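Inputs:
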Amino acid sequence: MQTRSWTCFLFAAVAMCVMSWPLAAHHAFGSEFDANRPVILKGKIVKIEWINPHSWIHVEIVKPDGTKEIWMCEGGSPNTLLRRGANKNTFPEGTEVIIDGYQARDHTELRANARNVTFPDGRKLFLGSTGTGAPNPEDFSTEKARKEGK
Amino acid sequence: MRSRFLLLLMFLAFAAAAQTPAKKYNPARLPDGHPDLQGTYDAATLTPLERGSGTPLVMTKEEAAKQEALAVSAKQQGDKAIDGNRSAPPKGGDGSPGPAGNVGGYNTGWLDPGSTFTVVNGEIRASIIVDPPDGRTPPLVSGAAHRGDSYRLTSIVGLLQAFVTARPRPTSDVTESSDPGLEKTPGAYDDPEARPLGERCLLGFGSTSGPPMLPNYFYNNLHQIVQTPQRVMILTEMVHDVRVVRMNAQHLPKNIRLWLGDSVGHWKGDTLVVDTTNFTDKTAFHGSTPDLHVIERFTRVDDHTLLYRFTIDDPQTWTKPWTGEYSWPEAKGHIYEYACHEGNYALKDILKGARLREKEEAAKAGSK
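Outputs:
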């Protein structure tokens, strides 16, 4: 029960945070994703498509029956991250991540929105600097990401 | 007598010195003698287009610092670690508003909306609009109020209405946060052309490419200027929109209409003046007509900053012209290509999502 309240509290905190940002999405996520299909994806990055208008993070997950699935998760524009010093080697293949979001309305597609992308300990992969595009290389050190991927 | 004369000379010298204005900034110049405006600029700012009713244009340092600290705090809050053992978000949606449509968007790490208010002439500004002096767009003329409504193709009547009233389709200046969702706007998902221009990768949202070029308060607010005596090119990162300003040229004939308008330029002193007309009905800035007239002024104010000033005139839309200005500081990073169509999987998924939704609703109606 305590865990449940804690989870509720966390959800409320995250929701408040997301809602406090006036523009949390660039296009109509509401039509793209299904509010009745929440997902939590724990797995390894197999590919990141650094493309516009949105990045797509491909994650391989192992289902309870041992079979594997590769999900595509929609993030934001890569340009902001590139200006902060991230590049295609920043999150190498095999980096363990947890992504929460909602599946595409078309359930034949293994696609979801990446509401939050974190390392297993809950730290966010994509940290924003407070300046306008000021590089924050420490947050994107390949070495650091590799360590987290172990 | 001689000492009196000396005193007079000293007085005149002092008076002349007191009246000499501060040394005028002399920008670096190109071989044609005009200021070099070239560079990459980051137009991101916290300063909104309009300011609150009754509030002054110039902010105090304390007020600005307070607001800027709030923005930093919101960003830090968004960047904070969360529970690694979290479960999936709630079934039925997370309650997020706007385009995040109850499923959430993505977190603050992806965003770069600016963290400071714009500074012009040493003043911290509370709005981009400086004229009218209240910092608000002037009243609309009668009949212009509903012109900015979205294009709706819900029926033959709707189609005829759109045709007869020439109601514009979704335009580049609306933020997609105004997307009202499936239930509230019938027809908004009926065909790709009913979707906002930003979502379709045609132009950046929030009038980033303009003119007038405005911050989108979201991310990628960069512009690059390349200058020759004959042409000035302005590249806007969102969505890789390019304007080519023809210097000392005449406007195109009225029947030739362009998405970003037809821009011609000339120098007035050290200021580049760009005059744009010949817009289409596909882009309506705040509900303007294709007869919108925009005059922009680009002035280098120091080695690292341009002042961008614009005047909007469209007598069919506003009761009088209005003017805004804000600084473009030199960007700290590179401008990157924004090849939007390359990865726009979302548009297909949005439209397919709408079709599936319609099927579900039809099935529900059928089973009743």
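Remarks. The longest helix of chain A spans residues 2-20. Strands of chain A lie at 33-49, 56-62, 68-74, 96-104, 111-113, 116-118.
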